[in-house]
Amino acid sequence: MKFRSALTALALTVAPGLAVLGGAGDALAAQAAAVTKISHATATSMFREVGITWSSSGNCSDRNNATCTSFAQLNLATAQGAQTLKRASGCALNITGGTETGHASGTYSHWNGYKLDYGKNTCVTNYIKGNFAYIGLRGDGAPQYQSGSGNIYADEGNHWDVLYYNCGGC
Question: What pairing do the DSSP bridges indicate for beta strands 115-119 and 133-137?
Answer without folding.
Answer: unpaired
